[in-house]
Amino acid sequence: MFQERTAPVYQASPTEVTQEEGLMLYEDMVLGRLFEDKCAEMYYRGKMFGFVHLYNGQEAVSTGVIRAMRRDEDYVSSTYRDHVHALSAGVPPREVMAELFGKATGCSKGRGGSMHLFSAEHRLLGGYAFVAEGIPVAMGAAFRSKYCRETMGDENADQVTACFFGDGAANNGQFFECLNMSVLWKLPILYVVENNKWAIGMSHERATSVPEIYKKASAFGMHGVEVDGMDVLAVRAAAKEAIARARAGEGPTLIEALTYRFRGHSLADPDEMRSKDEKEFWQARDPIKRLADHMITYGLASEDELKAIDQRIQGAIDDSLEFATSSPEPDPSELYRFIFAEDV
User: What is the pTM of this model?
Assistant: First the structure.
């Protein structure tokens, strides 16, 4: 039987979001949800291949953290569940979808596919197939920001890095090593644990001696917080505080977002490990519906306005699919290109 955590520290407040902010957050989450739904459709129709891990249910974490950052300036490091992180970071849906189809117009030029999205333009450091693989990469980006500012004298180098990973990665050695070094060097980084309760088919409570991952920050003298990962306003509040601390030179923060994936580990997963009661409990806390209810309740948007956003985003998704399917395959003559750095 699943276990429910006590109430997180951060709770949403009616005054925490303006109409403009609320509409932006809603649009970003809907973009992620509808994009992933289209991916599932294409996969089950035999149009998309390989390993595909969808993000449905976890949108409040990506939107709440990344949209609180500076687009095209701050850095984002993802995992193999990276489509929505890329979209929140500003990578165009066309480029993400084209990459999933292995096309030359994809953000990784068709070389990466679902688990290896990358965009230097949008400061997306990559998706990583190996668990915890992106953590030291993200720490390196944060070190670069600090080095450029304090050693090279670049006063504009105040970029913050957000490093996303799952609960399974929090038992990995790289996690602890990087937390330790980040505190020693006071690096401007947010370690965001998307605790969706399951590491593939392993229940989180069975896999770790300390289920409260945010408490592990205290072993290194790091600031750690727990947040309701199904509430975008709560995630945003926690992220804004952590970002402010990072830019002020106060060091890293470990944010544990309690969330849930609505689909199996991947689209090849029959999802038979999780109970019906557990799924229903979390689906009732759908982050998109929660924000929509909040917007309507406090007069920040009407149902018709939100439906109009849904329709517009669906049009953008359909456009991205048309673009991806009509784009060219990578030219075989460029098979060995992009292995080494080159001038562009």
Answer: 0.95
